[in-house]
Design a protein that fits this description.
The chain is of the alpha+beta class. It is built from 15 helices and 14 strands. It has a five-stranded antiparallel sheet, with helices on both faces.
Length: 408
């Protein structure tokens, strides 16, 4: 790519930079003539700022099919952006500072070179898809057979994607940051067949589970482990509806330092929830991070405090609750089942505020006496004494469990 950029710079007689779709610097030619702060910052920091990105994207460069001339501003030189498109997809941008000699003829002469670098970026992007469903399997043999190469520390990310008509898979991102892998196979609501080595994650009665409420989660080594997520679409994997959710789940493996940013970008693309697993120094343990990502996704979809992107490391008590079997979770939620939604919300807010009545009343927008009335009513309905520490803890956990079951 560097050789191509140098040749394009020579043909155009201009300072040239090459960036991917996320405005990360890939290569740049020798400086000729004046330089502005945008080019300088791009080279020094290896990527453009969000403000610069928004300014240039406002000119429609993401969907343009040919060179876009962008006028200068005070302190910012004019430039030409050439979208690097291959098979109708934009994979990056070639930037040339306006030198007064960037004629349409010169730009056309550089066309073959632009096509070559676009094809290289497309090939690189396609190389970022990997069979993560096998790599995330609990079966060591399946993980080894997947042939996924990654350097630690890594983190798995589960991203909910919109439901598609006619059972079609969701549109996958065509470009990903360097070092990030995505599974090209679709992960959809359903149940993996036992012993298949697939991501057998589905919903049983009252909630999702792996291996049934009385058995340990498949490959987790934990009794009664429940995974709230979806199963991989693939041969022999039947589909089943998931209460309260829709669409599919995209599996991502990212360098640990990039996981939060990638989850945010994909949430922005699909507009739904995402879960981030815990980091693993050894990529061979990434399957454990994937299970955490699925659990975190479930929390993101049901606990407003952790929506829309939930990070396993910050989930606190939800990390325990979401691992309960559906039967145990439902049993815990039953402790608060007698509460009306308004009283339940008031009690949960009171307990979330560590029993500070004034703060809770202010947060709810009610008089303190109204709050006290609702708390007394909750004690009467549940038989639990909010002045007793263990009863308070039980009721608090019950309300969180009810949310995970879709009752909150």
């Amino acid at each position: 790519m560097q050789d191509i950029v140098d040749e394009i710079s020579r043909l155009l007689g201009a300072s040239v930079t090459l960036e991917d779709r996320s405005f990360n610097l890939l290569a740049y030619g020798a400086q000729s003539g004046d330089i502005d702060s945008v080019r300088q910052e791009s080279i020094l920091r290896r990527r453009a700022s969000d403000e610069v990105r928004a300014h240039f994207e406002a000119y429609g460069i993401a969907t343009a099919t040919g060179p876009v001339r962008i006028p200068g501003l005070p302190g910012v030189l004019g430039r030409v952006c050439v979208p690097l498109r291959h098979d109708g997809v934009t994979y990056g941008y070639l930037w040339a500072l306006e030198s007064g000699e960037l004629t349409d003829e010169r730009l056309a002469a550089a066309g073959p070179l632009v096509g070559r670098v676009a094809a290289l970026l497309a090939a690189q992007a396609r190389g970022r898809y990997a069979p993560l469903r096998q790599f995330f399997s609990a079966d060591p043999a399946a993980r080894a057979a997947a042939g996924v190469v990654a350097e630690g520390p890594v983190t798995a990310v589960a991203v909910r994607t919109p439901a598609q008509d006619a059972g079609l898979p969701p549109t996958l991102p065509r470009t990903l940051p360097r070092g990030v892998l995505a599974d090209p196979d679709v992960i959809e609501p359903g149940t993996g067949g036992p012993g298949t080595g697939e991501l057998g994650v589905g919903f049983g009665t009252g909630g999702p589970e792996i291996g049934g409420p009385e058995t340990g989660g498949a490959g987790t080594g934990e009794p009664g482990a429940a995974v709230f997520g979806s199963a991989v679409r693939g041969p022999g994997v039947p589909g089943a509806g998931v209460p309260g959710t829709g669409g599919a789940v995209l599996a991502i493996l990212a360098p640990a330092a990039q996981a939060a940013r990638v989850a945010g970008l994909l949430h922005g693309l699909y507009g739904l929830a995402a879960g981030i697993g815990g980091p693993r120094d050894d990529p061979r343990e990434a399957w454990e991070s994937w299970r955490e990502a699925l659990l975190a996704l479930r929390v993101a979809e049901h606990a407003e405090r952790h929506a829309p992107v939930a990070d396993w490391a910050t989930l606190g008590v939800y990390r325990l609750l979401v691992r309960l079997s559906p039967r145990d979770l439902a049993g815990l939620a039953a402790e608060s089942a007698a509460l009306t939604p308004r009283i339940a919300a008031s009690v949960e807010a009171y307990l979330d505020h560590a029993g500070h009545a004034g703060e809770t009343a202010a947060a709810l927008g009610v008089h303190r006496q109204t709050l006290y009335y609702r708390l007394d009513k909750a004690s009467h309905l549940t038989g639990l004494d909010l002045a007793d520490g263990e009863d308070r803890l039980l009721l608090h956990l019950s309300l969180k469990a009810a949310a995970l079951l879709g009752g909150g």
